[in-house]
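Closing statement on the nicotinamide-adenine-dinucleotide sub-project.
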Amino acid sequence: MSIVDTSTGGTLPLWIGGRASDATSTRTADITNPATGEVIRKAPMANAADVDAAVRCAMQAFGVWRETPSVRRARILTRFRELLEAHRDELARLITQEHGKTLADAAGSLQRGIEVVEFASGVPHLVKGEHAEDVGRGIDCHSLLQPLGVCAGITPFNFPVMVPLWMFPVAIACGNTFVLKPSEKDPSASLRMAELATEAGLPDGVLNVVHGDKEAVDALLQHPGIRAVSFVGSTPIARYVYETATRNGKRVQALGGAKNHAVVLPDADLEFAADAVVGAAYGSAGERCMAVSAVVAVGAIGDQLVDAIRAKAAKLPVGPGDRQGIEMGPLVTREHRDKVKSYVDSGEAQGAKLVLDGRAFEVSGREKGFFIGPTLFDHVTPDMTIYQDEIFGPVLVVLRAESLDQAIDLINRNPYGNGTAIFTRSGGAARRFQNEIEVGMVGINVPIPVPMAFFSFGGWKNSLFGDLHVHGMEGVYFYTRTKVVTTRWTEDKPLGPSLAMPTLGR
Ligand code: NAD
């Protein structure tokens, strides 16, 4: 029986020490179904005492967990992976119910999260370290990757399962314990995953979930028991989390927002590029950090490309994410939908050409849902707000450039650097693009270049504060500390004291 089903209509519990736990805080936040506009349950907004209870529990669990052999930790993760598979439909339904995205999209994001669990299940191999024999006479050297202690994860609303799975499976695989603070807008799936992890055999206290907002986040950032913080969310909060947590002596990776450009060169396959751009711009209603939100049409392809995108976007079936045949769901909250609409107003006022207007879109019988239709602007310029800001909705802006050089220059001047893509048939142009572009994840004829779990995910510039990306080996390095051990076992006679800098070779 799922902990979330039993509390439908009520207030979610926290998950501390392997069981449901009521918050001491009486403050709550509404969780809405974006397709109906109805409040479906509430989440407690944890205070410093609630956070402290979770961190203490995680600190206590750390001693035994770090000494648990890595093969045993891996087996628990393998069982957890099987439970995620077995509960795929239930988790996808929870995502759709609280976030709004379609069931197929929700299941796809769960799959990408499961792949991180698969990666983390290889932990005995991943933390092996290095060994070198005879670095000096009778001297060997080896390195250990040791866990940090209690790590915290603070996650955004747009991937309520995948982003938490970027973090805690790798952290706990490496021997850390974890406190997860999911988005207060759609936290139920995190709670359910913690319950499944316990069912998989994860010892109590290794994974804890607290719900909350700034108050809970600040308590985590200030808690002396937290060693490292992984954050994913908008750029202003990422910067705040990075600055506050590093000031408090914590290791931090803070992934921020994005404005991802797709460059379409005149030699590109027009239909293929238009299909790819429409999927990447309007999928998940544009609420993806890797969504393409700006197209740079190079040279003569511009008019045809805009026509093709408009024709395809206008036909997209928009409606409740749990309805068969729907490709695009609502936005997450009424406030966010209204903000996205106001961006469309500003684009019009600043002189961009509105080619497709989704502002008046409604779904019959779901008038209270937070819907907006696909929206397309052409002839957008870099000084316009709709280009400068991350809108995080189904609003695509098209800019024109005369050459690949101009397109690269435009993207490199943008303060974000999460993802980008180029559409071309020219290997030389693609090669130059991947070499010169100042963006962390690059697609060549691939619109959403989200790296697989065994590579690392992360942007550049204002899209990431910190040094290491999530999952892949960078994730392992983030959640471990390296220790290098130099060992001498020799049967040689002692040579007497030496006061010179040891060179080992003597
Ligand atoms: P958000 O920044 O509003 O919230 C993220 C987290 O921070 C939530 O857990 C929230 O409770 C917390 N938070 C919010 N305000 C806070 C404050 N003032 N102080 C402390 N904590 C606070 O982001 P969101 O709206 O949930 O998610 C959308 C954003 O996340 C977009 O900007 C998107 O690009 C970004 N995102 C980035 C990536 C990436 O990999 N770079 C991935 C997914 C989402």
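The mean pLDDT is 97. With this model delivered, the sub-project is considered complete and its resources will be redirected to Aim 3.
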